[in-house]
Design a protein that fits this description.
This protein is of the alpha/beta class. The protein folds into three domains: 77 residues, Multidrug-efflux Transporter Regulator, Chain: A, Domain 2, CATH 1.10.1660; 77 residues; 128 residues, Cobalamin-binding domain (Rossmann fold), CATH 3.40.50.280. Helix content is 56%, strand content 9%. The chain has 13 helices and eight strands. The strands form two sheets. Strands 5-4-6-7-8 form a five-stranded parallel β-sheet, sandwiched between helices. Helix 10 links the parallel strand 4 and strand 5. Helix 6 packs across helix 8, helix 7 packs antiparallel against helix 8 and helix 11 packs parallel to helix 12. It is globular and about 65 Å long. The structure holds cobalamin (B12). Cobalamin binds next to helix 1, helix 3, helix 8, helix 9 and helix 10.
Length: 307
């Protein structure tokens, strides 16, 4: 094991959180595949230098896209970059208008960014804006962060502007729907540990567009609070979002626990790019694969509710 003379590098807890893995997984990879190969602080703690962090980010994205650890971990970073390019990981589809929006963010023209976003939302209407702008732009901003061309504070500014644009179109509709006896009644949130809230906001827009009553709790709601809100609002569907950043096991455990706590007549629908959702989910949890399929899933729910 290497010993670092100074203490440069990132600790195992911080790196596991950033990459969306458990500390155990990092230790197992180290033993099994010889990567990562952290330095050690004078106190014996693992420290990950920047180039290993960069490679780990890329490894995680390839695994999220379905590649296997045994095929990915032993490769050099150059080989992994090639693999990512060949399999389209982190590649944006060409779109000049979205590129322009990312550029406004990058150069710090935030007022222009907000204005352009709001203008596009108003011009296109809620459904088109969500599907053609909000969703692909989120992916683009994430890719730019991973490539090092945008900083975390850009992501924060992006999220604020996107929330304003989405809410300004959606909230009047949601409010008009309230009290009309619309079904299904859908509670939207994320579980503790999932701080990303744009996916569930976009899902709310799609539910509202097909006349569902939406009860939006924001992000990171503890399971017991979800159960209490379900009872208080007579909720029929709990909709949850999982980005790629939450460790797979935490997603599965969180969902299993919630499923056990909720009555079986309350459906749990999940969405988002977490690789956990491509695995076998607990019985009684439905993966709705994307935003456009919400319309169909609601139609099926209504059909079976009438039987
Ligand atoms: C904005 C953003 C942030 C903001 C979030 C602010 C907020 N209020 O939401 C901030 C700056 C706080 C942030 C922080 C972090 N982030 Co961030 N973030 C993003 C970004 C750009 C968008 C986030 C988002 O809401 N995504 C969720 C939705 C929009 O995307 P989706 O999961 O693909 O889901 C799609 C569909 O499946 C569907 N959908 C989603 N939910 C649901 C639900 C239902 C029911 C249905 C039907 C459909 C559906 O809608 C989406 C549209 O296509 C993404 C990039 C990306 N591609 O997502 C990175 C991203 C998620 N972040 C990432 C990371 C690493 C982090 C940080 C660890 C480090 C950092 N960048 O600062 C921290 C961790 C925070 C934490 N405590 O967990 C990584 C995760 C990668 C990984 N494999 O782990 C991403 C993917 C960026 C990247 N390319 O690497 N982030």
């Amino acid at each position: 094991m290497l010993v670092s003379a100074d203490t440069t590098g990132i600790g195992i807890g911080a790196i596991a959180h950033e990459i969306g893995l458990t500390k155990d997984t990092l230790r197992v990879w180290e033993r099994r595949y010889g990567f990562p190969q952290p330095l050690r602080s004078t106190g014996g703690e693992r420290l990950y230098p920047q180039e290993q962090v960069t490679k780990l980010r890329l490894v995680k994205r390839l695994l999220d896209a379905g590649h296997r650890p045994s095929k990915v971990l032993p490769q050099s970073i150059t080989r992994l970059q090639q693999l990512a390019e060949d399999s389209g990981v982190g590649q944006d589809a060409p779109d000049v208008e979205l590129d322009r929006l990312v550029e406004l963010l990058r150069v710090g023209r935030y007022d222009d960014f907000r204005f352009e976003l709001l203008k596009r939302a108003t011009r296109e209407g809620l459904a088109r804006f969500v599907l053609d702008a909000a969703a692909p732009l989120s992916a683009r901003v994430g890719n730019a962060w991973a490539a090092g061309t945008l900083q975390v504070y850009h992501e924060h500014l992006f999220s604020e502007a996107m929330q304003v644009a989405l809410c300004s179109l959606m909230r009047p509709l949601s409010e008009a729907l309230r009290g009309r006896g619309a079904h299904p009644r859908v509670l939207l949130t994320t579980l503790p540990g999932e701080a990303h809230g744009l996916g569930i906001l976009m899902a709310e827009a799609m539910f509202a567009l097909v006349d569902c009553e939406c009860i939006a709790l924001g992000t990171q709601t503890p399971q017991q609070d979800i159960v209490d809100a379900v009872t208080a609002h007579d909720v029929e569907i709990v909709a949850l979002s999982f980005s790629a950043s939450m460790p797979v096991q935490a997603v599965v455990n969180g969902l299993t626990e919630l499923r056990q706590m909720l009555p079986s007549k309350v459906a749990i629908w999940v969405g988002g790019s977490s690789p956990a959702l491509r695995r076998k989910l607990p019985d009684g949890v439905l993966n709705v694969a994307g935003l456009a399929p919400i319309e169909d899933a609601v139609a099926k729910w209504r059909h079976s509710a009438m039987l």
